[in-house]
Amino acid sequence: MVKLDAVHLIKATRHALAECESVEEIVAEAWQVQALAGAIGRHLAVSGPQSVRAEAIGLSEAGTQACLSSVGPVRCGGRWCEARADRLSQVQDPKCALSDLSLLLAETGVALVLVAVSAREEGLYWQCVEALDAADESGDRVTGMMRRLEAQEHGPAA
């Protein structure tokens, strides 16, 4: 298994989300996004800038919780989807990775809303709502970390 930096994995996941052709694929990619958010959170909690470590633990927990919920691993073409996040090796540029992750979470939210509003099955609708809640929570954590990095970069206001 080839290991990749967070930014590369986020780009791969954005591409996979954009290529989805079915509701099942969109839901599977929503799970991939949450797994990736959790993995990035775990990595930053251990080896990221000190200013974001506490919030990174929250991101890790939010991503993990989402993966354990009904949004969790789904079947893709008759087999279980492998978590792309398992290929994470490092977060070389935390600020860039968090910015890209924020955009990916927003794009995931849009895709899930489109699925939810057209869902004919109540179960699918609620699965999308749950995934949206998870993406929002992860997005809030990412925004908090980005603010902390920005504040650290610019120092205290005069």
List the main descriptive attributes of the protein structure presented here.
158 residues, mainly alpha, two-stranded parallel ribbon, two-stranded antiparallel ribbon, 5 helices, 4 strands, 71% helix
Oligomer: single chain
Our count of helices gives 5
Helix content: over 70%
> Numbering strands along the chain, what is their spatial order in the largest sheet?
1-4
User: What form results from the Cα inertia axes?
Assistant: globular
- The tally of strands reads 4
Give the radius of gyration: 15 Å
Major β-sheet profile: 2 strands, parallel
User: Are there runs of 5+ residues with pLDDT below 50, and where?
Assistant: 74-80
- Global structural class: mainly alpha
- Quote the distance from N terminus to C terminus: 49 Å
What order do the helices and strands follow? EHHHEEEHH
Taken as a percent bin, the fraction of beta residues is 5-15%
Mean pLDDT: 86
Task: Give me a quick take on this structure.
With 158 residues, the chain is mainly alpha-helical. The protein has helices spanning 6-18, 23-47, 53-68, 94-118, 122-154, and strands spanning 4-5, 75-76, 79-80, 88-90. Helix content is 71%, strand content 6%.
